[in-house]
From TrEMBL:
Record's GO cellular component terms: cytoplasm
Organism: Lentilactobacillus otakiensis DSM 19908 = JCM 15040
Gene3D superfamilies: HPr-like (3.30.1340.10)
Example GO BP: phosphoenolpyruvate-dependent sugar phosphotransferase system
Chief location of this protein within or outside the cell: cytoplasm
PANTHER family: PHOSPHOCARRIER PROTEIN HPR, PHOSPHOCARRIER PROTEIN NPR
InterPro entries: HPr, HPr-like, HPr-like_sf, PTS_HPr_Ser_P_site
SUPFAM superfamilies registered for this protein in UniProt: HPr-like (SSF55594)
Matches recorded under Pfam families: PTS-HPr
Name of the protein in question: Phosphocarrier protein HPr
Length: 95
């Protein structure tokens, strides 16, 4: 299992375009990938699940990958998020 915690930097949060592109990035991997925000966890490969979270700017989220390509999945998703300026990675115990 791979897990990372992020602070959302994008002015629009993780909504519409960032959410869609994040889901598309997650769909490239066989591993189960989840997104947790405010105590609720959804499948990161589901646009409806991600959009249902309503993740605003300056919030904290966790992404977890579990499966045969979990390291590659986490690395690819982190690369996408950072390259788009959507998030910054933080320590797992950060608020």
């Amino acid at each position: 299992m791979e897990m990372s915690r992020f602070k959302v930097l994008a002015e629009t949060g993780i909504m519409s375009r960032p959410a869609t592109r994040l889901v598309m990035a997650a769909q490239n991997y066989a591993s189960d990938v989840t997104l947790t925000y405010n105590g609720k966890t959804v499948n990161l490969k589901s646009i409806m699940g991600v959009m249902s979270l309503g993740i605003p700017q300056d919030s904290y989220v966790e992404i977890q990958a579990n499966g045969e390509d979990e390291q590659e999945a986490m690395a690819g998703i982190v690369d996408y998020l950072k390259s788009e300026g959507v998030v910054e990675q933080v320590a797992l115990d950060a608020n």
